[in-house]
Write a structure and sequence with these properties.
Nuclear Transport Factor 2, Chain: A, 2 domains, 4-stranded antiparallel beta sheet, 31% strand, globular
Length: 150
């Protein structure tokens, strides 16, 4: 701890609150930093969303999780995603609202999942919530297993 001496010789503890604030800031940054499931999953989600944003629907299917691809065939996925995304127009903004790690997702086998919500704005829809659920796939790679827009 750092100390400072006042004119009358008493020791004043001035650094404790600053050090505590710095430790909290470092801990907060570390918790959301690289190597944590939430940040890895968010990166995977954003990469996958870029494919959908660009209209690369077939590639978005092939880069989704094994669970996703077992649940919906590519011939089912292509018109489904097109019918949801194309009426919205281009993405204008996408801001992370939350990223929550869980091992249990309703209707899916237990595993490592991160439920991510983005506040998004599109060319033809001012406000939407996109929920993207990446999972750690069988090969250990984070891949999208679910996608919903409200």
């Amino acid at each position: 701890m750092l100390h400072s001496h006042s004119k009358d010789g008493t020791i004043m503890k001035i650094a404790a609150p600053l050090m505590l604030a710095a430790l909290i800031a470092v801990a907060t940054q570390t918790a959301a930093g690289p190597g944590h499931p939430e940040s890895e999953a968010e990166s995977a989600a954003r990469s996958w969303l870029a494919l959908v944003d660009g209209g690369s629907y077939a590639r978005s299917w092939s880069e989704a999780s094994t669970l996703f691809r077992r649940g919906v065939t590519q011939p089912q996925w292509l018109p489904a995603v097109a019918s949801v995304r194309e009426p919205l127009g281009a993405v204008r903004s996408r801001t992370l609202r939350s990223a929550t790690f869980t091992r249990v997702v309703s209707g899916a086998p237990d595993g490592d999942y991160v439920i991510i919500q983005f506040a998004s704005s599109f060319e033809k829809r001012q406000s939407a919530i996109e929920t993207v659920t990446p999972m750690k796939d069988v090969d250990g790679t984070w891949r999208v297993s679910g996608y919903y827009i409200k």
